[in-house]
């Protein structure tokens, strides 16, 4: 599947991301300009930067980020504010501890609260922090996300010490949602080979902060 992709096609998988706490408005302007030049699908920024002019790109933001340890009504309010401020997509973080404790109904309820605050056509992605979960927990959280009406499941915030996306986690997530939801791989995807491996495993979106380097790998390696 991935062998037919070129840099332009791969760019359309990308949420071009800047979520560093020290990011400035000037940094976000530069992100947007770079994203337009690279032909990415969206830019993903912290909610305090909204509203913004993304020059025709989709606007994604985060919710309950990065810990997920927020009350559901607070997450819902944050998401609703972001939508009012023009976000097209919201990437929310689950309560990972609830998942670790096997409280998957609570995880579902948390996601459902944010879904209610972000009605279609807003896209809701659910960050499950896959590196901190067992395979069983990944499956159950993905089922909870689907039951709650999410549009995507997403591997990672990129801020958790357990790590980011892995091919193994993406394969499990993709198998669980069976094409009914999208799968976003994010966290540690830094090379062209990484990106293509994630897509081969079933990712339908990529969260990248080093997008230029990933897309530039096509030229450096003589094409894929």
Verbal overview:
This protein has 224 residues and is α/β, with parallel strands linked by helices. It has helices spanning 7-11, 25-38, 72-84, 96-100, 104-117, 135-147, 167-177, 192-201, 211-220, and strands spanning 14-18, 42-45, 58-63, 89-93, 123-127, 152-154, 182-186, 205-208. The mean pLDDT is 96. Strands 1-2-3-4-5-6-7-8 form an 8-stranded parallel beta barrel, surrounded by 6 helices. Helix content is 42%, strand content 17%. It contains 9 helices and 8 strands. The active site is at residues 91, 154, 184. Keywords: Cytoplasm, Lyase, Schiff base. Pathway: Carbohydrate degradation; 2-deoxy-D-ribose 1-phosphate degradation; D-glyceraldehyde 3-phosphate and acetaldehyde from 2-deoxy-alpha-D-ribose 1-phosphate: step 2/2. This is Deoxyribose-phosphate aldolase.
Mean pLDDT, to the nearest integer, reads 96
Question: What is the molecular shape?
Answer: globular
Q: Please give the alpha-carbon distance between the first and last residues.
A: 11 Å
What fraction strand? 15-25%
CATH architecture: Alpha-Beta Barrel
- Helix share of residues? 40-55%
The H-level CATH homologous superfamily, spelled out, is Aldolase class I
**Order of strands, widest sheet:** 1-2-3-4-5-6-7-8
Taken in chain order, the helices and strands follow as HEHEEHEHHEHEHEHEH
Quickly count the domains.
1
Which structural class fits the helix and strand makeup? Answer: alpha/beta
Low-pLDDT windows of residues: none
Report the C-alpha radius of gyration, rounded. 16 Å
What is the CATH fold-level name? TIM Barrel
Question: What top-tier CATH class fits best?
Answer: Alpha Beta
Please describe the biggest sheet, giving its number of strands, its sense, and whether it closes into a barrel: 8 strands, parallel, barrel
Q: How many E strands?
A: 8
State the helix count.
9
């Amino acid at each position: 599947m991935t062998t037919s992709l070129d840099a332009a096609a791969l760019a359309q998988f990308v949420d071009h991301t800047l979520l560093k706490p020290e990011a400035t408005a000037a940094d976000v302007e530069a992100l947007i300009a770079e994203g337009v030049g690279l032909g990415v699908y969206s830019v993903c920024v912290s909610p305090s930067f909204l509203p913004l002019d993304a020059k025709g790109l989709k606007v994604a933001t985060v919710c309950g980020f990065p810990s997920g340890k927020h009350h559901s009504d607070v997450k819902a309010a944050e998401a609703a504010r972001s939508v009012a401020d023009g976000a097209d997509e919201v990437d929310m973080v689950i309560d990972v501890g609830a998942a670790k404790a096997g409280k998957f109904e609570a995880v579902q309820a948390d996601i459902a609260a944010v879904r209610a605050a972000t009605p279609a056509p807003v896209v809701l992605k659910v960050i499950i922090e896959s590196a901190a979960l067992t395979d069983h927990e990944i499956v159950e959280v993905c089922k909870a996300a689907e039951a709650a009406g999410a549009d995507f499941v997403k591997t990672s915030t990129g801020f958790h010490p357990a790590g980011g996306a892995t091919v193994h986690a993406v394969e499990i997530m993709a198998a669980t949602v069976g094409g009914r939801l999208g799968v976003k791989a994010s966290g540690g995807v830094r090379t062209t080979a990484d990106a293509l491996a994630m897509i081969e495993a079933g990712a339908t979106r990529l969260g990248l902060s080093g997008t230029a380097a990933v897309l530039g790998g096509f030229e450096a390696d003589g094409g894929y």
